[in-house]
Amino acid sequence: MRITPMVMNGKIIFNEQTIKEHFLMRIELPSSFPTPVPGQFVMVREKDIQAPLLSRPMSIYGFERNHNCSFLEIFYHITGQGTNKLSLLDKGKKISLLGPLGNGYSINLDFKHVILIAGGIGVSPLTFLAAHLNAALKVSSFEITAYIGGRHGCALAGLERFSTYCSDIRICTDDGSMGYQGLVTDLFEREINRYSAKDSCIYACGPEGMMRRIAEVLRDFPFSCQISVEERMACGLGACLGCAVPIKTSSGTVEYQRVCKDGPVFDIRRLIWS
Ligand SMILES: Cc1cc2nc3c(=O)[nH]c(=O)nc-3n(C[C@H](O)[C@H](O)[C@H](O)COP(=O)(O)OP(=O)(O)OC[C@H]3O[C@@H](n4cnc5c(N)ncnc54)[C@H](O)[C@@H]3O)c2cc1C
Ligand code: FES
Description:
Elements: E1 6-19, E2 22-30, E3 41-46, E4 56-59, E5 62-65, E6 69-77, H1 81-87, E7 94-101, E8 113-119, H2 123-136, E9 143-150, H3 159-164, E10 168-173, E11 180-181, H4 184-191, E12 200-205, H5 208-217, E13 224-228, E14 244-248, E15 254-258, E16 265-267
Parallel strand pairs: 8-9, 8-12, 9-10, 10-11, 12-13
Antiparallel strand pairs: 1-2, 1-7, 2-6, 3-4, 3-7, 5-6, 13-16, 14-15
């Protein structure tokens, strides 16, 4: 059942740099904010400020509630004007949030092995997913293996929290300063035969190049694989069609779907790579 998104004002509890150009923001919200599912996102902007005009989409990194209020976390990388402005907001500042938005990951607890593949800030939605899966381990039994990649050891965004939820963490760095030297997709490809496609499922989020490579690797391996797609967004609600991407339908035709409403999570085999 889809959650009805709400616009709410929140208060920043903290907004701290974790590693270079990466910030973790914790926001206090009214307790009526709907409980999100992993893979969903929020549109974020500073309250009552008109520049930049459009809110920015951010995956939900963490969420908890008590009887008085809810706490939502976003983990973000500064890429331009909007994220730079977010990084300058101090504790106590008011923030406007629209959400939770999008479909979120479809979670099937029947698999014996869950494989998470995170590139860069793609670790954000996968950390929230890993936390949910970890909680599900009380009732189901499966392994969680995570592949995480970055340029070098000190540029591995979110590694600490992500690792706490996973049975096995496979680290890759471009310069070999930590873990395997090379791309996260290279290590995953080398190790793919460790997993059975029948018993394992994959969730991935990262740069387009990483996801495209996973799609190529999986041509020969019939794993179930869901990826979270990033597109520039305006409304976040499915109204402007600004985020539409071509998707293969089950009957083999191509149709445009909105990343904000029909996604951001799609079956990797349905994506058409430009
Ligand atoms: C569903 C969803 C979830 C996201 N979750 C996160 C998250 O958890 N953490 C995080 O750091 N970022 C996340 N992003 C990306 C984030 O929204 C963009 O980085 C942000 O909007 C850039 O805004 P800006 O004003 O700082 O940069 P801009 O000045 O708008 O753009 C800077 C550069 O980033 C590119 N860019 C902007 N928006 C996007 C986008 N959506 N996808 C790809 N490239 C883009 C631009 O083309 C430009 O090259 C998410 C995006 C989506 C769609
Ligand atoms: S951002 Fe408007 S339809 Fe997706």
